[in-house]
C-alpha cells in the first residue's frame, strides 16, 4: 500500500500535492479529504497495474506495420469511450469550480477555502475517471497503449482536435511515471497557460508516437506492390517529421485514406465522445513503463497481444 501511495503522489503532481498540504495545514479536518483522495488513487493505481500485467504498458504497444486498425478494434475503442461518458461529464463539470479556487482575485483564507471545497472533489473525480477507464479497458480487452494510439489517431489525426485542448488554468507535466497536473495560480493569463499545456501534451504524444512509428518501421510488410510501398513511404515520412520536432504530432496534417476509411462508420459516436475539458487527462498514465519519460531509456516494445 505504501508503494501505491507513492504512485498517487507522482500521478497527482507537485501542484496537487502542494494544494493538499496547504489545506491540511490550514484546516485539520481536511485530513479526511486527504484520506479519501489517497484511497481513490490507490484504487486507480492498483487497477492500472493489473491492466499493465495483462496487456503491457503504454510503451509496449506495437501498431500494425502501416498503422492500420481493424473495424473490430475501433468498435471496442468506441465502446470504451461510451463507457466513460458519465465519468467524463462529472470531471468536466467539476473543473470550473476548481479553477475558481485559484482565481487570482481571491487571496489568503478565501482562496484556501475555495481550494478546500474544490480540490479534494476534483482529485477524487480524476482518480475515479482513471479507475473507470482501466475497468472499461480490462472488460473490453484493450491495453493502455492501444487506447492512447487510437485516441491520438482518431481525435488529432482524423478529427483535427488540438492536442493541448483543455480547461482554463490547467497545465500538464509529464515526467517519469505518470506525469502530473496542476492549476497555475500566478498572474499569467490563460493564453500562457494554454501554450504551456499544449507544449507539454504535444511533447508527450511525440515521445509515444516516435516509439510506435519505430515499431511500425521495424516490421516487414506482409504484402508487396505499389499500394504497400506507398503506405510504407507515408509511415517513413511521418516518422521523419516526428523526429524533426518534439512538438510534432502524428497525422495532424491529414490522415491517410487507408486509416480514415475504417474510422468513418463511427464518426458521429466518436465526435460525440470528444471532451475538450477532459483531454489533458486522457494521456495521464500512472505507470507507463518509462522511468524518466524519455524514449531512450524505456524498454523496447514487446510483441503486442493481438491488438490489431
Layout of helices and strands, plus pairs?
Elements (H helix, E strand, L loop, with lengths): L1 H11 L1 H13 L4 H25 L15 H13 L1 H17 L6 H33 L3 H15 L11 E4 L6 E4 L6 H28 L8 H19 L12 H7 L3 H6 L6 H4 L26
Antiparallel strand pairs: 1-2
Mind explaining what this structure looks like?
It contains twelve helices and two strands, in the order αααααααββααααα. With 308 residues, the protein is mostly helical. The protein has a two-stranded antiparallel ribbon. A hairpin with a 6-residue loop joins strand 1 (170-173) and strand 2 (180-183). It is globular.
Give the key terms.
single chain, 308 residues, mainly alpha, two-stranded antiparallel ribbon, disordered N terminus, globular
Amino acid at each position: 500500500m505504501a508503494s501505491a501511495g507513492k504512485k498517487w503522489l507522482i500521478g497527482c503532481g507537485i501542484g496537487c500535492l502542494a494544494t493538499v498540504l496547504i489545506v491540511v495545514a490550514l484546516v485539520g479536518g481536511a485530513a479526511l479529504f486527504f484520506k479519501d483522495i489517497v484511497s481513490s488513487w490507490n484504487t486507480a493505481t492498483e487497477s492500472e497495474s493489473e491492466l499493465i500485467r495483462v496487456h503491457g504498458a503504454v510503451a509496449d504497444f506495437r501498431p500494425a506495420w502501416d498503422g492500420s486498425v481493424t473495424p473490430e478494434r475501433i468498435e471496442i475503442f468506441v465502446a470504451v469511450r461510451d463507457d466513460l461518458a458519465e465519468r467524463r461529464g462529472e470531471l468536466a463539470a467539476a473543473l470550473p469550480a476548481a479553477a475558481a479556487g485559484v482565481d487570482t482575485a481571491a487571496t489568503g483564507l478565501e482562496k484556501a477555502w475555495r481550494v478546500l471545497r474544490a480540490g479534494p472533489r476534483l482529485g477524487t473525480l480524476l482518480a475515479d475517471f482513471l479507475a473507470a477507464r482501466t475497468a472499461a479497458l480490462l472488460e473490453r480487452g484493450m491495453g493502455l497503449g492501444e487506447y492512447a494510439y487510437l485516441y491520438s489517431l482518431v481525435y488529432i489525426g482524423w478529427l483535427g482536435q488540438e492536442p493541448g485542448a483543455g480547461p482554463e488554468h490547467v497545465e500538464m507535466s509529464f515526467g517519469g511515471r505518470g506525469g502530473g497536473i496542476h492549476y497555475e495560480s500566478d498572474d499569467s493569463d490563460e493564453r500562457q497557460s494554454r501554450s504551456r499545456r499544449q507544449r507539454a501534451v504535444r511533447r508527450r504524444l511525440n515521445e509515444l508516437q516516435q516509439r510506435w512509428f519505430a515499431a511500425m518501421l521495424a516490421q516487414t510488410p506482409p504484402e508487396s506492390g505499389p499500394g504497400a510501398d506507398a503506405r510504407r513511404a507515408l509511415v517513413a515520412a511521418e516518422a521523419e517529421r516526428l523526429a524533426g520536432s518534439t512538438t510534432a504530432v502524428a497525422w495532424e496534417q491529414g490522415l491517410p485514406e487507408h486509416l480514415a476509411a475504417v474510422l468513418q462508420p463511427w464518426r458521429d459516436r466518436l465526435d460525440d465522445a470528444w471532451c475538450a475539458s477532459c483531454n489533458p487527462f486522457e494521456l495521464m498514465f500512472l505507470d507507463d513503463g518509462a522511468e524518466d519519460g524519455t524514449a531512450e531509456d524505456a524498454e523496447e516494445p514487446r510483441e503486442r497481444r493481438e491488438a490489431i
